[in-house]
Amino acid sequence: MSDAVRVESLHKTYDDTVTALAGVTAGFPNGTFTAVMGPSGSGKSTLLQCAAGLDRPTGGRVFIGGTEVTAANDTKMTKFRRQRVGFIFQDYNLLPSLTVEQNVVLPLRLAGRKVDRRRCREVLGHLGLGDRLNDRPEKLSGGQRQRVAVARALVTEPAVIFADEPTGALDLRSAQDVLALLRAVVHQYGRTVVMVTHDPMAAAYADSVLFLADGRLAGELRNPTADAVAERLAHLGDAARVGVAA
Ligand SMILES: Nc1ncnc2c1ncn2[C@@H]1O[C@H](COP(=O)(O)OP(=O)(O)OP(=O)(O)O)[C@@H](O)[C@H]1O
């Protein structure tokens, strides 16, 4: 199975003093759902930002769909990201002045691509938003807003969708709906999802969990359960407290 995303020897330091990533090598195979977990400050968001081409690593390489994005200049990287990467954020990042449908087609417009309205409506219909096309985000619940964000991430048919705490602002029921949807995005639409989360219940929806501690990979759990994830995290916390990566 080829990798949708591969990071090699990824390093990131801030201001020459803070080491956020200390050499992470990992592959995210096509058509899989991976959760990234670890104690606060372990480098999860930095890994996501660097892997997504939103930030540049201090060292190492990032490949998306086989193309090395770290070799591209900023303009090329932005263009590539618009074509090949989808994003889902904790706070939805929908534009309040645009309707649901306008929000969803925005990435296609930004990428200068033809807008296939029938397909967009089809995706929104599958996500249970077929009757909300002309509503503005303020009229929607948190769970519905996040479903719009999922639809927006899907329409460009990206090589990978990165989700940063996508359920962090949702109640349990809406969180479960969005997580089930992300699983469907992977297992029915065949997309690849990489999700940062603090929540073992959320991580249990993924096919596997990568653990980070102190900017390094600290293990992987396949077919995770919430209990197994929570236990592994507790031990990572112990290791981080005594300064040893598990
Ligand atoms: N822009 C920045 N400038 C300086 N230091 C930063 C910056 N962004 C992150 N860091 C530092 O890099 C380290 C890793 O941060 P990161 O946000 O990646 O961790 P995280 O695992 O996502 O944490 P959390 O779970 O709390 O969101 C931390 O020590 C953090 O303080």
UniProtKB/TrEMBL annotation:
<keyword id="KW-0067">ATP-binding</keyword>
<protein>
    <submittedName>
        <fullName>ABC transporter ATP-binding protein</fullName>
    </submittedName>
</protein>
<dbReference type="GO" id="GO:0098796">
    <property type="term" value="C:membrane protein complex"/>
</dbReference>
<dbReference type="InterPro" id="IPR015854">
    <property type="entry name" value="ABC_transpr_LolD-like"/>
</dbReference>
<dbReference type="InterPro" id="IPR027417">
    <property type="entry name" value="P-loop_NTPase"/>
</dbReference>
<dbReference type="InterPro" id="IPR003439">
    <property type="entry name" value="ABC_transporter-like_ATP-bd"/>
</dbReference>
<keyword id="KW-0547">Nucleotide-binding</keyword>
<dbReference type="GO" id="GO:0016887">
    <property type="term" value="F:ATP hydrolysis activity"/>
</dbReference>
<dbReference type="InterPro" id="IPR017871">
    <property type="entry name" value="ABC_transporter-like_CS"/>
</dbReference>
<dbReference type="GO" id="GO:0005524">
    <property type="term" value="F:ATP binding"/>
</dbReference>
<keyword id="KW-0813">Transport</keyword>
<feature type="domain" description="ABC transporter">
    <location>
        <begin position="5"/>
        <end position="239"/>
    </location>
</feature>
<dbReference type="Pfam" id="PF00005">
    <property type="entry name" value="ABC_tran"/>
</dbReference>
<dbReference type="InterPro" id="IPR017911">
    <property type="entry name" value="MacB-like_ATP-bd"/>
</dbReference>
<dbReference type="GO" id="GO:0022857">
    <property type="term" value="F:transmembrane transporter activity"/>
</dbReference>
<dbReference type="InterPro" id="IPR003593">
    <property type="entry name" value="AAA+_ATPase"/>
</dbReference>
<dbReference type="GO" id="GO:0005886">
    <property type="term" value="C:plasma membrane"/>
</dbReference>
